[in-house]
Amino acid sequence: MKKISWKKRFKIWLFNFYPPYVGAGIRIKEIAKDFSYFRSEMNLRFYNKNYVGVHFGGSLYSMCDPFFMLILLERLGSDYIVWDKAGNMIFVKPGMGKVIAEFRISDSEIQRIKDEIEVKKKGDYLFTTDVKNEAGEVIAKLEKTVYIRKRGRLPVQNG
Predict the structure, then answer these.
(1) Fewest CB atoms within 10 A around its CB: which of 34, 104, 110, 158?
(2) How far apart are CA 141 and CA 127, in angstroms?
(3) What is the pTM of this model?
(4) What digits encode the pLDDT tens for the residues 94-116?
(5) Three-class DSSP labels, 115-152
């Protein structure tokens, strides 16, 4: 497991001051040293409630948006291009109080992706997670499709 440099740690710390996260009350609470895991949380506040008094769906999606892509960018390294391609969130029940989302991609999954990309050169990968309340009940289900490809040898392919 590699150690996180102070520059990367600082960059991640800055995420907590990213205006959409501040505005929604989203906090990144935990990051694995090898970037294989992130946990974000959001408390229900007057500024992230919707019309009926529960968590605003856009804020729930925001607390989930970048993390699978971030994990892949860090774990795959600079030989790969990684882009979020699509996202879908299904709201299961109203979100009240604190909500929590965890994002994890295992070493074996990273290796499987590398092996497939070595053969196919590119691919779309689906990742899922649940947003839960403090009681562990699922309030929303997230699906993210991430596009991954190997960087090319031509300079135009490496931008």
Answers:
(1) 158
(2) 11
(3) 0.86
(4) 999 999 999 999 999 999 999 99
(5) HHHHHHCEEEEEEEEEEEECCCCEEEEEEEEEEEEECC
Task: Give the pLDDT confidence of 69-80 residue by residue, as tens digits.
Answer: 999 999 999 999
Instruction: Tally the residues of the chain.
Output: 159
Looking at per-residue pLDDT, the higher value among 52 and 5 belongs to 52
Q: Which residues are within 8 A (CB) of 101 and not within 5 positions of it... i.e. 6 or more apart?
A: 39, 40, 41, 63, 64, 67, 129, 130, 131, 132, 142
Q: How confident is the model at residue 2 (pLDDT cuts 50, 70, 90)?
A: low
Using CA atoms, how far residue 101 sits from 7, 14, 96, 123, 134, in Å, is 25, 19, 14, 25, 11
